[in-house]
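Morning. Coffee machine broken again, so started the prediction first thing and wrote up yesterday's gels while waiting. Chain of 476 residues, entered below exactly as on the submission form.
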Amino acid sequence: MATGILQAVDTGVVSDETLRFTTEEVMIKAPGYWLSPALVALASWIANDKNNNVKALNESLKRDDYKTTLFFLLVMRRLARNEASLQWLERYFMHQNPHNLDREFIIILEAVTTGIFPPASRQLMMTNVKNWLDQLTQSDNYINEQKAQWVNFFEAKGPLPDGKYPLLEEFATNWNALETSIKQSKTHDILKTHFNSIFASSAGFSKATKIQLDEILTLLVTNFDDEELPLQQQVRLNQLIIQMEGDKNAAQALMDTEKHIFDEKVDLLQVLTNAAFNPELAGATKATQALAVSISQSWIVEAHDTFTANSRNKVPATIELHIDSFKTTTQNGSDETEQLKKHENYWADFLKNELNKLSFPYGSIIIGTLIFLLGFWGFSMHFIVGLAGFGIGLVLIYNAINNHKKMKQSIKDNIETRKTKSKEVLRGCIAEAVDYRKESATEDAKAEELRQLLIAITPEDFSSISKDTKNILQTN
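Came back before lunch.
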């Protein structure tokens, strides 16, 4: 409705009476909401009804001084009322605290980014912003907080598992560390794409001023109120769970990097970080996101250096394998010959030990022999008794020896089968280890590419940023 009223002013096709009736109806339907009397004030102003305008404006300011000020600041600028917009901007900055800014400050930053304000208004705003930046950056705490958030952001941007190394995943006992390492090394390329998309989309931001301002007004009146913050947080978490394909832990990690976006009041540096992380949630566009990244460049680079150093420090020096009962370690899989020899020796020793555990059936043989010898004595009693003694003794001896041979062969066959399968798995693990280390090195090398991209960021790269804004950033 706010945008419609402004467009009605542009076209002149809506009567003053229609505007008055429509806005007064909203005043009744939305009691307590600041925008209702603001629209009444706007309609009264258009109809040149000063008395009603003053009453409605005072009511809107009473309900929410901050948003009402923002609203009329933007409206006056849209209608080219430069002197009025400057007065509203002075009112806006009158009680601002860079340590404790409302989330809606991003609207003003957005307006400057897109070149909406007249020169005098921009100068007023940017003088304040420069002083705030100087004030906040004098404290290491504020910068360190932002760097820590960026490090967490980088860590959370890693890819989902792709199952590329199934054998290492199953047989490497330190797979969790290996997976974390490759995930972090792959993050650099993802981040490079992320930042490139920010700059590419912001470079084409060149709409007409009134259209830009309509969009910013929409951001202001649709940006959720503080009372909605808990619900918005839950909605965002559910969106991330879907995005991360049901991985709640990964979703929560991303959510944790964005948690300050839902804070009711933040410092200026946090405003910039919020806009850089997620402009839509922060209530901004890609143009402001690019500007926020530009201003935050120095600590983003430091955060990336920290992230890279931490990642490299955590790269496992060896790949620890446990295949069947065979345990070994390899650095990069280049020692296949040595590993296979070690594997062969292990199973040879294992077979020897297992065979040594198999005791020879001396007891059964002795018993059989005794029975066989008793057969001689049995002949003295009866021929059949003697023959039975011979037969039983021989059978016991034969069975004992034969069973021993079978058990021995069974052990050999079982161990040979295990050794063969283990050898195949070992070869596969070694091949995957080679590929893993190559991919890890290739992806890690992209850290420098990303660093150079971040270092090269300059406000001049963004056509939507005004000359005055560039000058401010160049002095910081």
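Strands lie at 101-102, 265-266, 319-323, 326-330. Going to sketch it on the whiteboard this afternoon.
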